[in-house]
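User: hey, got a sec? need Putative thioredoxin folded
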Amino acid sequence: MPTNTPQPSRSGADPMSRAASLRGAVDLSSLAGPAPAAAAGPAAGAEAAGQAGSADGSWVIGQADQQVLQQLVQLSAQVPVLVHLDLPGDESSQQLFDVFADAVDAQGGRMVMARVDAQAQPQLLQAFGLQAGPAVVGLVGGQPVPLVNQPVPADVVQDLMGQILQVAQQNGVSGQVPPVAESRPGAQDPEPAPIPESHRAAHEALANDDAQGAVAAWEKALNENPADEAAVQGLAAAKLMVRTQHADLAAAREAAAQNPDDVDAQIAVADLDVLGGHVEDAFSRLVRFISAHRDEHRETARQHLVELYTVVGGEDPRVNTSRRQLAMALF
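Assistant: Yep! Here you go:
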């Protein structure tokens, strides 16, 4: 669904509507400096902190300093990286860490997590556009993915894991890394809530670049449970991928410019803009069309705009802004 947007630009599909969300672009330049020559990667940084990895280790770094964090920003080009902005001594912060740490280790190297002390390094909160912690934020390809700033149930975390991996796959981040730390003391083998088979089928289809298969899987999920919010958003994102998979952006823009009253031409560019991370441009294009037309094409554009809201996510401030603009255009 995930920089650009809360997530990298290739998809807006995320299940954040059931959790407090962290939205908006952030400047990660202060975190992404070159890794020190003495460190080959985050595992090296972990060793320096006395947390050498092992074959039966963990993918969760219990305490990361600025150097390790810089390496993790780079590692996010290979696997998604979660950063827990910790408030030591805060019960909710510890709960947040525990549930995400277990879920990350359950992925077996498909993602990595690190805890950083947000009290000792308050500049990290600022870098992620936050006023206070605790929070868990994500990085995919060096770009931020919005996660949560309050404890959430384990089933929500499992949904988040699937969606983060989906976003990562769509952005070419689908590696697997060995453990980066020793096994966590007291960590239990996680028993994640089962992922619905239709959800699993959709994720597998996307992993195989089968957007149409993902559409079918999400539709099956909604037939089984019409109230499945993750499936609603997943379906909207998968349909967007199907519509745009053979599109030519330059040709679409030219067609839209030459035919300002052609609703399909405007929709085609809006789709590509959302896919490319130009969310505001996409929304504004369709709002302008709606404002300028009073025929049946107006409703077509409105319905499509609402579907794009679903792709991006109802909690995104750009969606809220556009909804207000849409209301003014309609009345």
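Quick note: The two ends are 30 Å apart (CA to CA). Let me know if you need anything else on Putative thioredoxin.
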